[in-house]
């Protein structure tokens, strides 16, 4: 029978073969970083993202302690894939007629599906190794004793089925239980990524890797087998505060502290309806997400471009024309953004963001279009268009 160490090594090899640049193992523990999550929620820093606040029957936040929702889990396999492309950063582009869609959303395939497909390949290999070894539950120090109910944690999680898988040995006892997640699990992925040795948590709250940078999609596999855990990566941010200083809305309220209510990514993707006026003129020409805190990070200066074809940019999504976005029909939105993360903002939100970007462009040629949009049937678009007209007029 293969040892736990051998199985751990084979799982990491399977991750590399599946297309992940990085893979590591974290134990399931009450890490100190997780103690910050309830305080973050209590401070209201999650904004309207209520899925972050899902609680168990006792009123405890599920994401703050993995043991509450997956008591059988003993190890977390954390995998990371590079999605960077060869296009310029947002800080290198100046075109008043065009907006900015975050780099992660340019991809030809929704990253949830692309990462999940790779995760399933790793999970399959893990299961194969357990079966080939002829292992039984008691052969491993932490085999599970039962299945936990699957819980959705994200409004856009439908395509990424995260069903629990259980294999039983001849005695009817589960030999392995596992579950895969891409952004939708009951855990704070970046904390486990740190303790899996994938990277450190930067002052911009992103996972940073010394060789690859921060353009990383994370995927995790919870498993009932206690694999050999890796060592956490040392924090290499040092005294650098470029990400904090570069944030236009001061959303990074301190090192490693993000107030989502002020974050341009939150405002353009998660925020519904009216964007606070005090923040609009600080949003620049961002229409979906924001990359500034990563664009200015020294660790991304030499970040390599991805080799994965599915993460290459779709035509028209790098610096899209603002007028095109603002006048986009429902049918065009569905067709152009089919299978894209951009759908999360909805057509109303994307058009609203485009008119705010027009107001921030300084280009008075947008005024006639904005005056037309000021009477749009979508009141959110109309209200922000009226604001944009006032700003360009003054």
- The main sheet orders its strands as 1-2-8-5-4
From the spread of the alpha carbons, the general shape counts as: elongated
SS content category: alpha+beta
**Elements, N to C (H/E):** HEHEEHEEHEEEHEEHHEHHHHHH
By DSSP, the count of extended strands is 11
Q: Number of helix segments? A: 13
Summarize the biggest pleated sheet: 5 strands, antiparallel
**Radius of gyration over alpha carbons?**
22 Å
Low-confidence stretches: 141-173
Distance separating the two termini: 75 Å
Name the helicity range. 25-40%
Tell me the strand percentage band: 5-15%
Give the tally of structural domains. Answer: 2
What's the average pLDDT? 90
Q: What is the oligomeric state here? A: single chain
List the helices and strands and how they pair.
Layout: H1 4-18, E1 22-27, H2 36-42, E2 75-82, E3 100-101, H3 111-133, E4 165-168, E5 174-181, H4 189-195, E6 200-201, E7 207-208, E8 216-223, H5 242-246, E9 252-254, E10 257-258, H6 264-269, H7 277-280, E11 286-288, H8 292-295, H9 322-326, H10 330-336, H11 346-361, H12 367-373, H13 379-393
Parallel strand pairs: 3-11
Antiparallel strand pairs: 1-2, 2-8, 4-5, 5-8, 6-7, 9-10
């Amino acid at each position: 029978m293969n040892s736990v160490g051998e199985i751990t090594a084979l799982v990491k090899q399977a991750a590399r073969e599946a297309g992940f640049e990085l893979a590591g193992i974290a134990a399931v523990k009450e890490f100190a970083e997780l103690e910050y999550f309830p305080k973050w929620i209590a401070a209201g820093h999650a904004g309207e993202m209520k899925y972050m606040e899902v609680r168990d029957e006792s009123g405890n936040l599920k994401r703050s302690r993995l043991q509450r929702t997956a008591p059988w889990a003993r190890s977390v396999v954390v995998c990371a894939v590079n999605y960077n492309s060869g296009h310029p950063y947002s800080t290198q582009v100046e075109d008043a007629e065009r907006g900015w869609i975050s780099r992660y959303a340019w991809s030809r395939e929704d990253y949830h599906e692309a990462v999940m497909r790779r995760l399933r390949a790793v999970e399959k290999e893990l299961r194969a190794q357990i079966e080939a070894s002829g292992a039984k539950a008691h052969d491993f120090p932490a085999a599970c004793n039962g299945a936990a109910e699957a819980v959705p944690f994200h409004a856009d999680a439908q395509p990424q089925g995260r069903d629990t898988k259980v294999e039983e040995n001849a005695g009817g006892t589960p030999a392995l239980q596992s579950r895969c997640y891409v952004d939708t699990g009951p855990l704070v992925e970046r904390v486990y990524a740190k303790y899996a040795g994938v990277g450190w948590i930067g002052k911009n709250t992103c996972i940073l890797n010394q060789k690859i940078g921060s353009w990383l999609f994370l995927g995790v596999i919870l498993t009932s087998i206690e694999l050999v855990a890796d060592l956490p990566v040392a924090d290499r941010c040092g005294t650098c505060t470029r990400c904090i200083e570069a944030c236009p809305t001061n959303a990074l309220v301190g090192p490693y502290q993000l107030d989502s209510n002020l974050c341009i990514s939150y405002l353009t993707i998660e925020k519904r309806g009216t964007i606070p006026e005090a923040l609009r003129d600080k949003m620049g020409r961002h229409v979906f997400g924001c990359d500034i805190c990563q664009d200015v990070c020294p660790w991304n200066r030499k970040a390599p471009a991805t080799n994965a074809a599915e993460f290459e940019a779709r035509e028209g999504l790098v610096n899209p024309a603002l007028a095109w976005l603002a006048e986009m029909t429902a049918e065009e939105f569905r067709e152009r953004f089919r299978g894209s993360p951009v759908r999360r903002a909805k057509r109303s939100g994307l058009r609203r963001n485009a008119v705010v970007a027009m107001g921030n462009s300084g280009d008075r040629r947008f005024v006639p279009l904005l005056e037309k949009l000021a009477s749009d049937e979508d009141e959110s678009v109309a209200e922000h268009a009226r604001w944009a007209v006032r700003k360009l007029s003054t």
